[in-house]
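#structure-requests
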Amino acid sequence: MTPHPVDPERVARARDRLPSAEEGDRLASVLTLMADPTRARLLYALDVAEELCVGDLAMALGVSEDAASYGLRVLRTAGLVTPRRQGRMVFYRLAEGFPEPLREHCLRQLIEMSRRPIDDDQDD
């Protein structure tokens, strides 16, 4: 067996830059929310259209209004989308400060990465 750590400087650097356990839990919770296909697509639709009501979102996604409404409720509770009431209609948009790099680059790149074949020859 190899004694650990093999590279104490890199271990220390990684440890210094890691989010706290609480931050890790929060991040995992947010990523879990976004891992649902309907919720992920709701975020994309709101990014593209800026603001839509539940019925229009349901139509855009090809899901029921109940599914769109539930997804929006979960995303709203997490602080990722915000509602705006206009009479009896409620319109949704991405929350103020929703990270543009996440929308424009990271999510699309993750989709592309998941399409690549897995290289079983790499060591873990």
